[in-house]
């Protein structure tokens, strides 16, 4: 397998969010050049200031639009020669009760997580296939495996779909030196999780976790970096569970 010079260039969607920023930070620490992508330009600018790294660039990107992925690919390729790693992290987290979810809200949530992951895999997967090398990491969720306990049905369904898309793209790209894997975290120790759940409900969630603690987002980031490694050729089509024992298989 020939490894292109841009193998250490990574595009991370939803990059300005808490988990996205943790992934970008860890990639930078491990020597990657990172394009942090997000639809929220203001949050993107603040996250860039927080990380303050010479190998970090930002891209305003709406993951529901193929043209945005193509534009980001063109900009990053012009700067660094191509993209060797894609982390599909963008998502809309909603906790709307099942029978109160409108069709519009269902479409919005699934468009970002599921369609966004599909378009990212499709556009960047074709680019990587052309070089005979690539690493794609999709952020799934425990909710996509157990139906969700604290999140909405639309979020859970989109994350379950991501696990399936991971298998489909992994099978199609395997012969071209491109691996596709998913990480499926349980509840993480993030401000966004604490904002989503009131303290009493969060405490109740923690009590259900066999290890008795929320997950460490930096560990999720380290796992993403491990799957992005050129040596990770044998890991493909897999979903890596990091849920504190909430879901065992």
């Amino acid at each position: 397998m020939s490894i292109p010079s841009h193998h250490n260039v990574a595009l991370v969607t939803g990059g300005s969010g808490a988990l996205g920023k943790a992934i970008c930070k860890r990639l930078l620490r491990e020597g990657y050049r990172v394009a942090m992508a997000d639809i929220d330009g203001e949050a993107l600018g603040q996250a860039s200031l927080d990380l303050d790294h010479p190998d970090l660039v930002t891209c305003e990107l709406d993951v529901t639009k193929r043209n945005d992925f193509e534009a980001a690919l063109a900009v990053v390729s012009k700067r660094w020669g191509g993209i060797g790693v894609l982390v599909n992290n963008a998502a809309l987290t909603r906790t709307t009760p099942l029978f109160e979810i409108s069709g519009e809200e269902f479409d919005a949530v699934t468009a970002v997580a599921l369609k966004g992951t599909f378009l990212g895999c499709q556009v960047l997967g074709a680019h990587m296939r052309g070089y005979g090398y690539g690493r794609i990491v999709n952020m799934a969720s425990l909710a996509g495996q157990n139906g969700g306990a604290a999140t909405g049905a639309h979020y859970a369904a989109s994350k379950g779909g991501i696990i399936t898309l991971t298998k489909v793209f992994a099978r199609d790209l395997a012969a071209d030196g491109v691996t596709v894997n998913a990480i499926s975290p349980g509840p993480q120790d993030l401000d966004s999780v604490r904002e989503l759940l009131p303290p009493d409900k969060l405490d109740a969630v923690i009590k259900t976790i066999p290890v008795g603690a929320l997950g460490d987002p930096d560990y999720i980031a380290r796992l993403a970096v491990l799957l992005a490694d050129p040596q990770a050729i044998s890991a493909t089509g897999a979903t890596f569970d990091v849920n504190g024992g909430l879901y065992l298989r």
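The first strand starts at residue 9 and ends at 12. The chain has a mean pLDDT of 96.
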